[in-house]
Design goal:
- The chain has about 70 residues and is mostly beta strands.
- It has no helices and three strands.
- It has a three-stranded antiparallel β-sheet with strand order 1-2-3, with no helix packed on it.
- A hairpin with a 5-residue loop joins strand 1 and strand 2.
Length: about 70
């Protein structure tokens, strides 16, 4: 149980983790890629290093044409 009433679940030996709202709605469902193995999952706040807008972002790149 999280402080806001949501539920965070790590699915045991499987590399999956999910969060549900207090009302049962699935908020996110994710998994670790590759050969990473762990039976534990944790959810922590991720505070910014500096106040203000982020200086970088992630985006999906399309494969280069051959």
């Amino acid at each position: 149980m999280l402080a806001n009433g949501n539920v965070f679940i790590g699915w045991g030996a499987q590399p999956f983790f999910s969060e549900f709202s207090a009302g049962g709605q699935l908020l996110y469902d994710a998994h670790m890629h590759g050969t990473y193995e762990s039976y534990r999952a944790y959810r922590f706040p991720w505070p910014p290093l500096r106040p203000g807008r982020p200086r970088s972002r992630a985006s999906r790149m399309e494969p280069a044409a051959r």
